[in-house]
Design brief:
The chain has 9 helices and 4 strands; from the N terminus they run βαβααββαααααα. The protein is α+β, with helices and mostly antiparallel strands.
Length: 235
């Protein structure tokens, strides 16, 4: 990670200059992973400035952005008031959600058992729902659909169904994934929304899991989630 002492002397600032460098800087695009962090920022009320980083190579593979995230993926943040009052640059949406939850004391229980229960569901999304739903999108809706061998798409349809079934079991009799609304809900709901974007709701059996669908509507109706769908604004 590039050494820096303020937002304005980080290389990313040369391409996406901060107008208000004393507030948290968000570099993102409203994909499922981007929406997670925008929604968390909206939920917490933490002041921030959003910069639109498109998924084009000219943005995410630019030297300026790679100085912030060498993995060339959105979202990423710079918090000028990080631990010890020093600036902190951070990438990976799950890590950012945990950081923001701990910074603000919101949406992650201070009770150790509940905290780890929440984190396990965050990891479920990061390691399961996100990657598998993303592959479903590639093979079902995008370039991968041209592949003659249909085993890849069948695999990801099946895995998406399985993950939705896991959520249905978990959410039956519950309003939220853990006891209260948390970063587990914030990180998971945007990925379920992607099924509509992929045109894949019917093929994965949307409409057959009432607990998941009730939870999804409950979470996505929150004003912060609705706002996050266009934060940062698309060009």
């Amino acid at each position: 990670m590039t050494a820096f002492t303020s937002v304005t002397d980080h290389p990313v600032n040369a391409r996406w200059p901060a107008k208000t460098p004393d507030v948290l800087q968000l570099y993102s695009f409203p994909t499922p992973n981007g929406v997670k962090v925008s929604a968390m920022l909206e939920e917490t009320g933490l002041p921030y400035e959003a910069h639109t980083v498109t998924l084009a190579d000219a943005d995410v593979k630019s030297p300026e952005f790679l100085a912030l995230n060498p993995n060339n993926k959105i979202p990423a943040i710079i918090d000028p008031d990080g631990p010890g009052g020093k600036p902190l640059a951070l990438f990976e949406s799950g890590a950012i959600l945990i950081y923001l939850a701990e910074k603000t004391g919101q949406f992650l229980s201070p009770d150790p058992a509940t905290r780890y229960e929440t984190l396990q569901w965050v990891m479920f999304q990061m390691g399961g729902v996100g990657p598998m739903f993303g592959q479903l999108g590639f093979f079902y809706a995008f370039a991968g659909k041209e592949i003659e061998d249909k085993r890849p798409v069948a695999r990801y349809i099946g895995e998406t169904k399985r993950l939705l079934d896991v959520l249905e079991t978990r959410l039956t009799g519950r309003d939220y994934i853990v006891d209260d609304y948390s970063i587990a809900d914030i990180c998971t709901a945007p990925w379920l929304r992607s099924l509509d974007f992929y045109g894949a709701k019917e093929v994965v059996g949307w409409g057959t899991r009432p607990a998941v669908e009730g939870w999804f509507d409950r979470v996505m109706s929150r004003p912060a989630l609705q706002a996050a769908l266009n934060i940062p604004p698309r060009p």
